[in-house]
Amino acid sequence: MAINGKRAAQRGFSLVEAMVAAVVMAVGLLSALSLFAYGLSTLQTAQEDLIARQKSKEGLESVFNARDSAQITFDQIKNISNGGIFVDGFTPIYEPPGADGIANTNDDANSGGSKIDSIILPGPDGILGTGDDVLQNLTNFQRQITITPILIAGTANENPNLRLVTVTVRYTVPQFGQHSYTVSAYISKFR
Prior knowledge:
Order of helices and strands: EEHEEEEEEEE
Structural class: alpha+beta
Shape: elongated
């Protein structure tokens, strides 16, 4: 077609431009798909993450409550390997936590009333407190309480009035493997 006697140039996409555009679009779509998959996996483990967070905080609170109520002395706030009362390594989470009421001590599994902890989840109706609620045992959760001495600055001597309490809860989700949640706090001899 001629406009004012000149032939109009016909332009379009070349094959190379179309292929580059297709590659860019495929990379974008794959990125969006991987982000969607990551979001789904995070959603799948969100409930277990929340339980692990709560159980680690309960373990930490157990140590502080035992100290505050004078149920144990500050010298007992150590792992068994260092002369204290807290079990070394990961152990199942019991409810109640033994006769002494302190998490991760020797009497947890040996106490007659203790059993593996469980939680109640809402059933198919999504409402907690109705007849279809589900009891979930926390058999895939384990807790470890580690007591670490704090050194006096510039020396190799332990501070007799301060320790680091680290509580780690680990759990396994079948499709996603093992996860853990850790919370730490300093505990002093003084309340």
